[in-house]
């Protein structure tokens, strides 16, 4: 099968933008993506598009894909809207890889967009947790903060994980986000602030939860047959893995691990011919701080139950052996749902090409992105290799 | 032939509002003779209270819900003014498709009258449940006295307590306690001497109807309708009984006005305590009175009545908390959309929501809750064997949801009752093995922060939320002692 490469990636700032629409946000991301292609690219070169969007608030529930691709001038390009909750655009990238590898397309746009901050707080909360097991989890009075709080509670009971370790994740993510000009909450926070913030769903405080954001991100994936036309320094998508699981946490055997992440990672590592020890940095799905601890364990960065110790030891800080969420992650960079997965690949693209500025991981060769839908009903993992490795 | 009472059950909400807290707020307390009142939880109504009392009575009996010939639900405050809610009560319990379901109401006499009617019937088992939670305008006598509670009686063809005599009377007294069409609060003109006259005259006429068949002074315990803690004693003269036989099982002093459940709860208390001859004196404004004389057998013979009646509670609440719990000062559900659960889809899940019906996978033996789709363990697409989960289970994980973390459908509940704990509960299967199945459930009747992984809980049916005027009922979990 043909190899697939990222030849360009971009995104809007994440944050609250009352003067923007989902279309204008997507346009910003699209223009930043095409501008990142070293030798330039014409709209006419793009064969196919996959767009992730939940349509929070009920805006453009149908045909939201063509609504944004036609807006940016990708006229007539077959566009598919992808919905896998918060993993929507991670799956869009995977679809782009499939299209390229199958030979049906040479250049594919994968992206996502979400507008979340122009709604009343009540309406916003109606749209929280719509990807849980609606008829049971929701009717037990939970949205995702409640479900992830239950995961945290179970992890604490089983492994002795401490709330302060969750707070240290938040402190680390904000330290990284403060170096990212595109971050929604690009400021540092102290351990005391994270510990002392109001409780949202015990044991999670406000600082253990990601914000709701407006934002868009996109990635251009090209086949090995055409990649050289566009850049001499492409990022190879070495491994792709994805998996599903029961939508409701209560229907799973374990509340302290996401089996879909494990399965997706296994597939991606095998395809790339690498293991977790080869990964230089990772962008993981930290919608809640406990989710990052689960990711450490499920992606094989440490043994089950040792995720809290990994942050305690500073391994995943920017200066550590395995920096995680250099962008600030969902916590600090923000979480515009449909855009998040593509945004993670955008960060990896910058890191692997040495363009990450103040938050650059020195000598980054192998990066991993990890995008989760719901409380683990969907997961997708990409292993990406920088230009030097492939050359 | 006639029926006899073989088992009783009772349920009273946990929260108690002391009279002095009302005095503090209003500068007076107008519930004469009442020390405290029982206040329903934010997710309780007369139907959920009836469900709990009925389940307790059935568990004390040898009758299965499916064997009941009839279910009568007596209340002056049904959650809906039209719709046969006794069927929903039956569904909570698992009655059969051909069970007769009926609701009795109209006045506070309804509970005693329904029990008397069912005792006269002569075919299969009959469940009578009286449940009430009257309300008044906050500054009224009725509101100060308002309590809540339910009592249930299992009636069979023999054994337990039999009816010795019954008498009824009706005298037209307009302007005594009434509730106008479309109103949720009871009212009265407050012409005290007139109301006392209606009470004693109507009951007196019913006493006359007993004739030689029963002498009230021979009763070991007498239960009289109690809209407050003083009025019932005014009937001692026409009944010819000492007030001390009226106090032993009086519930009004600690629980308040229980409406149609007032006399039934006292009767259940007396029968469960082993009193031999028990007189129930019902009264409803309008006015009507039904008097019922019961005789239980010796406790070591077939005449014992099974069941326990215990409504002790040390959870007291402030007056402001009572206003929140009752929804007097909360804003209702916010507008919005999203995560909509249609009524038909909710209705299809009621065997799980009311009775914890699960399924056993014929391929691998795993218990599945919900019993639909592919098995959660072996992932084969199978047809499940129906399995009834135990009602008791263990908390596997729990979170306490604060204001920001609740879905808006639960905003009204949270405004009334505060932060809540929500958990995943593993319910034991029926077999000897360790098979269990889990459900996500709200936790009730507990300090949220006190709920921990490993705690034992039991399922109880409560209101989940109301949308489009339709209340979704379903199980929640309550800590076991």
From TrEMBL, chain A:
GO terms for biological process: isoprenoid biosynthetic process. GO terms for molecular function: acyltransferase activity, transferring groups other than amino-acyl groups. Residues 241-385 form the Thiolase C-terminal domain. Residues 13-225 form the Thiolase N-terminal domain. The keyword Membrane does not apply. Keywords: Isoprene biosynthesis. The keyword Acyltransferase does not apply. NCBIfam families: PRK06064.1. This is Thiolase domain-containing protein.
UniProtKB/TrEMBL annotation, chain B:
This is Zinc ribbon domain-containing protein. The keyword Repressor does not apply. One of its GO terms (molecular function) is acyltransferase activity. It comes from Natronosalvus hydrolyticus. It holds the Pfam family zf-ChsH2. Residues 351-379 form the ChsH2 rubredoxin-like zinc ribbon domain. Keywords: Isoprene biosynthesis. InterPro entries: ChsH2_Znr, NA-bd_OB-fold, Thiolase-like. CDD domains: init_cond_enzymes (cd00827). GO terms for biological process: isoprenoid biosynthetic process.
